Amino acid sequence: MDLQLSGKRAVVTGGSKGIGLAVARALVDEGAHVVLAARSADALEAARATLVGRARDGQQVLAVPTDTTDDAAVRLLVDTTVAELGGVDVLVNAAAEPAPFGSPTALASLEDDELRRQMETKVLGYLRTARAAAPHMTAQGWGRIINVSGLAARQAGSAFGAIRNVAVAALTKTLADELGRSGVNVTVVHPGMTVTERTPAMVEQVARARGITEPEALAVLAQPVSIGRLVTAEEVADVVAFLASPRSVAVNGDAVAVGGGARGPIHY
Q1: What PANTHER family does this protein map onto (predicted)?
Q2: Would you state the pLDDT for residue 107?
Q3: pTM, whole model, 2 decimals?
């Protein structure tokens, strides 16, 4: 299936690693021009270098160091994209502070400042980028915004993870209702535990804590997943690439789970 992304201009925040980088790679492979955004200039340039070799003649891959907690930096990111590429068609929000594996969940251990920090990046950061990019999309009558959230929105266990991910879903639906009639679809994807560069350390931690082998630890982590294994960042990116395409017009404001299926609950 041709996703009709060739020549589209996409901004991917959190694009230097993990799901963000996988999404950028998928969009490049589909022929889109991609602007990578993340805090670390060195990591961003390293990511860009891996994508340039995949790009076709005339296809651009840019890197713009950006801290999405800074509204001026976000506006500069979008202004730079428009100046270099002539506009912006797709925004993928994947910049977030990863929750430390095994972080405290008991009420007495929860700290106000930690929640503020997480919300500043994942919720307000997503709001800032959408606010800066949406006028360009509505002016041209087409656009796609995809927010990467997480399955913590659908389960108890991590208070801060649930709060920030539910907030992203609420933001997504609000923007979708406002922007849909202008040709801009807004969706949210909920990954579960996903195989990225962070996974080996998590597997090692579980294995050490339980006194089991790393393959056994990986099986423990995958136990709640109905397909029997963890989904990879590349598999999440395949779904995001579809949502970024013109072919996804029938999906707007909705949450798409991309964790391989959660055993037990029924969502309807």
Answers
A1: 3-OXOACYL-(ACYL-CARRIER-PROTEIN) REDUCTASE, NADPH-DEPENDENT REDUCTASE BACG
A2: 85
A3: 0.95
